[in-house]
Amino acid sequence: SYVYNTLGMTAMTFALGGLAFWMPRYIVLFRGEGTLADVGTKFGGITVVSGLVATLAGGYIGDKLRARHSGSYFLVSGVGMLIGLPLFLGFLVAPFPYAWALLFAAEFCLFFNTGPSNTILANVTHPAVRASAFAVNILIIHMFGDAISPSLIGWITDSTKSAELPVGNMNLSFGAGVSLAIFLSGVFWMLGAKHLERDTELAPTRLS
Predict the structure, then answer these.
(1) What per-residue confidence (pLDDT) applies to 8?
(2) Which of 71, 149, 179, 188 allows an S-S link to 17, with CB 3.0 to 4.6 Å?
(3) What is the number of helices (H) and of strands (E) in the chain?
(4) Residue 200 CB: number of other CB atoms within 10 A?
(5) What's the DSSP call for residue 26?
(6) What is the model's pLDDT at position 205?
(7) How large is the C-alpha radius of gyration of the chain?
């Protein structure tokens, strides 16, 4: 459970890191919508509101479903990402202002796992090593997630520059980078669902 959850969180962090860095530039330079200041404000507002609401909703639904499915925290996280994938792809082709609504919905799905994924970490680790387990998780998800995704997406964008696309094909870089990360994150979390009950039982909830 710990491994699958860390893999899912790493892919999710990769996607969110790429979006956070490149989204304003994508909307302004590639889609020709507004200014960086205006778009940055709108995107920041969408991220804050969708993140807050999704975090609360994901935790609530994960808790509610736990009585019916022992792997609910994994399932909520995985299903959220897999639903978010077509919403994000739709955002890449939808005209504005409708694209804003799809972006909000996609980010909502990407933040839906925040509560459940952190609950998994707490549930499957012994209290004596829980702080270390969280520290290792944080190191991995950022080292292989948002620390490298902006550069990778930028490299793909630069490699697609041409006379017709002087800023590069950012739809391709988002599709190859962010979309793949969203898909992999959902798959990793779905694969972890069957292990959660056993791993939770093996990790005592308190020290004797």
Answers:
(1) 97
(2) 149
(3) 10, 0
(4) 18
(5) I
(6) 59
(7) 18
